[in-house]
Amino acid sequence: DAEITQSPRHKITETGRQVTLACHQTWNHNNMFWYRQDLGHGLRLIHYSYGVQDTNKGEVSDGYSVSRSNTEDLPLTLESAASSQTSVYFCASSEDAGGRTGELFFGEGSRLTVL
Amino acid sequence: QQQVKQSPQSLIVQKGGISIINCAYENTAFDYFPWYQQFPGKGPALLIAIRPDVSEKKEGRFTISFNKSAKQFSLHIMDSQPGDSATYFCAAADDSNYQLIWGAGTKLIIKP
Known about the structure:
By secondary structure, chain A is mostly beta strands. Chain A contains no helices and 11 strands.
C-alpha cells in the first residue's frame, strides 16, 4: 500500500541546533506540503512543493527550509531551532488532479520539542 | 479574507445525538470545502468534501450543508458514536493553488 512516512516521530533538541525532519511518500504525488499544528491554530502551512526542484513558502516559513530533489521526499530543515518552533509537524501529499484541489494524505506527524 | 472560522472549539454530545460543527469564510473564490478528521497521535484524514455546485452532500452518517450566500458550511454527524470522538477540521481552497486554508479545529467527544 502507498503511504507517507515521517521521521523521527519524536525529537528533543536544544535552541540553536539544526534539525531535519524527513518525509517520504510512495504515492508518487507531485504535490507535497509541510504544516505545523499548534493548539488553537489548526494547521499552518510552512512550505510546499508542486514537483521536483520546485519549493514555495507558506504562511509561516521563517526559520524553515525545504528542498525537493526527487518526487518521494521533502525534508524540512530548521536552520537554528527556536523554542517557538516547538510543535507537531505534519507532512502531506496530494496528486495533481488536473487543476483541482485534491485529497491530502498526511503522515502521522513529528513532535518536536526545542529546549 | 483568507480565514476560515470554525466553531465551537469543543463539543460534547451524547451517544446517538447529532453533532454539528460550523465554519464560515470570506473569500468568495473558495470553491472546495473539505472536512478532515483527526484521531490522537495520527494525521488528519479526509472525511467528506463539497463543491459549491451542490448545497448538501451526504456520506453515511456524515453530511455537509453548504450555504453559498451566507458563506457558511457545516458538518452534521447523525447518530453520533463514541468512535466519532476526534478533532474535526474544516478547510477551504480555491483551485488556483491547491492550498487549503484551515479552521482551528473542533474537539468532539461523544459520551457513551
